[in-house]
Amino acid sequence: xxxxxxxxxxxxxxxxxxxxxxxxxxxxxxxxxxxxxxxxxxxxxxxxxxxxxxxxxxxxxxxxxxxxxxxxxxxxxxxxxxxxxxxxxxxxxxxxxxxxxxxxxxxxxxxxxxxxxxxxxxxxxxxxxxxxxxxxxxxxxxxxxxxxxxxxxxxxxxxxxxxxxxxxxxxxxxxxxxxxxxxxxxxxxxxxx
Length: 193
Ligand code: GAR
What we know:
Elements: E1 2-8, H1 13-23, E2 29-36, H2 42-49, E3 54-56, H3 65-76, E4 83-86, H4 95-100, E5 105-109, H5 121-127, E6 132-139, E7 149-156, H6 163-186
Parallel strand pairs: 1-2, 1-4, 2-3, 4-5
Antiparallel strand pairs: 5-6, 6-7
Bound molecules: glycinamide ribonucleotide.
């Protein structure tokens, strides 16, 4: 069994998809800890629903990015996780953090990277009249939504789509893609960069 730590900031629908896949045995891994940088988010309720250990580490309570990142590492490193999974975790991480977890830190982003990085991927895809969008799982480095791409899934963008309908379509694919990538990683079929 591989050991996973999941970092969230909000809804946690990807956390739920991964937790389900682990619970029913589709992914040979256990979620050892969920960390949220925001209190009172739905993702924490979802963690509870799956009886997962969770912690809140609020970034606002630290006076620098480095101190917040170190507090995260203090929780994560003793677990000796095989994989740290960013699932809607909306903070940029320092180089010290990404270096400490090099090859074990992955993120999901709601676009076909390198197109539309940043916090408004769906808005940007629609504004650019893209005919396709999707989601990307990638290894994380200290850049914004950068780092080697592992796998992507496409969706069609219709002229009738708005941000919400596109987000919903992409999330459906994320919930398939993320457990699939974690399964492949657990089987040793994804090489770390
Ligand atoms: C997901 O769509 C994920 O791709 C996105 O946040 C959403 C989180 O949803 N992440 C980013 O935009 C990272 N740049 P969830 O909390 O329901 O899993």
